[in-house]
From TrEMBL:
Highest classification ranks of the organism: Bacteria, Pseudomonadati, Pseudomonadota, Betaproteobacteria, Burkholderiales
Keyword Flavoprotein in annotation: yes
Alphabetized UniProt keyword annotations: Flavoprotein, Oxidoreductase
UniProt-recorded name of the protein: NAD(P)/FAD-dependent oxidoreductase
Example GO molecular function: oxidoreductase activity
InterPro entries on file: FAD/NAD-bd_sf, FAD/NAD-binding_dom, Ferredoxin-NADP_redctase_2
Species annotation: Piscinibacter terrae
Pfam families from the UniProt entry: Pyr_redox_2 (PF07992)
Stretches assigned to the FAD/NAD(P)-binding domain: 22-301
Length: 315
């Protein structure tokens, strides 16, 4: 991402033939598509830009998404949301936002790969990127749906199962302790530790977890479709499922480059109306919240879109 001052524009947006939009939404995951739907239903002139990196695309099946008692795949959910958006003449631009420029009149120029968009408001729904274990064989487990990221989403499906939690810090231990609500048979599996071993040992013991000795060196899918972990001492351990408890990185760079405040995790800080510290810059979904849930993202987006509409109406 490149940060460029507004003075670097070849022409003023007013003189360059750009249409002034009400809002540009960056990201077409559950938050971005919900916001787009609301804004179109408010008869607002909106563009939704998406780079195809939504975390929802990685969801094989969500069973805690309200209204889908049999569960829904992330791809199917997004397809349904896009169809809903089209019913109000909304659409998604498949492109990448390289940077956003702030105009002296508080409008923005959103720079894409092939065009520029001029807008009164920007709503960032850029999400997060999960951290995957840097261990050989991880791709095979992801493909087999045996490496999960979100126990809030699907811990229920593994009630009573043998669960391994891969971590390298106290954050991982806390997540493993959370998973013990679903099963008493939870093991903590260390990769290269960021927290001194003694502190990890104390935390694991205090949480009532079993710690696999050593460090994970290889992950595989065995003949029974179980997750198989080989440790650095050569020992092997089978699990019904593994969870990666390594955290996630918020995609907040577009906002922080404009001066928006972020918290200690890097999430964009917003008020009750989804406003960031930069006027007319809003944020919704996982890029804001540490509880990375579809239902939370949808709620954020509804609040943000309504706030944008009300602010435009009062201008």
């Amino acid at each position: 991402m490149t940060v460029i001052d507004i003075d670097d524009l070849i022409e003023d947006p007013k003189d360059g033939g750009l249409e002034l939009l009400d809002c540009v939404v960056v990201g077409a995951g559950p938050a971005g598509l919900t916001a787009g739907l609301y804004l179109r239903r408010f008869h607002r002139n909106v563009r939704i830009v998406d780079a195809g990196a939504s975390r929802a695309l990685q969801i094989s099946r969500s069973n805690n998404c309200p209204g889908f008692p049999s569960g829904v795949a992330g791809v199917q959910l997004l397809e349904r949301m896009v169809r809903h958006l089209r019913q109000v003449d909304g659409f998604v631009l498949h492109d990448t936002v390289s940077h956003i420029l702030r105009h002296p009149d508080d409008s923005f120029v959103v720079c894409l790969s092939h065009e520029k968009l001029w807008t009164r408001n920007v709503l960032l729904c850029t999400g997060v990127k999960d951290r995957q274990p840097d261990v050989a064989g991880v791709d095979a487990l992801v493909s087999a749906d045996l490496l999960r990221q979100c126990p809030v989403c699907d811990g229920y499906e593994f009630t009573g199962k043998h669960i391994g939690v891969i971590g390298n810090s106290l954050h991982g231990v806390k997540e493993a302790a959370f998973i013990r609500h679903f099963s008493a048979n939870v093991s903590f599996i260390e990769i290269a530790a960021k927290t001194p071993c003694t502190r990890l040992d104390v935390a694991v013991h205090s949480a009532g977890l079993h710690r696999i000795p050593g460090v994970a060196r290889h992950l595989a899918v065995d003949a029974d479709h179980k997750a198989f972990v080989t440790m650095d001492d050569g020992s092997g351990h089978r699990f019904d499922v593994l969870y990666a408890a390594l955290g996630a990185d918020p995609r907040s760079q577009l906002g922080s480059a404009l001066g928006a405040s972020v918290d200690e995790r890097g999430n964009l800080v917003t008020d009750a109306h989804s406003k960031t510290s930069v006027p007319h810059l809003y944020a919704a979904g996982d890029v804001v919240s540490a509880l990375d849930q579809i239902s939370v993202a949808v709620g954020h987006a509804a609040i943000a879109a309504t706030a944008i509409h009300n602010d435009l109406s009062s201008a």
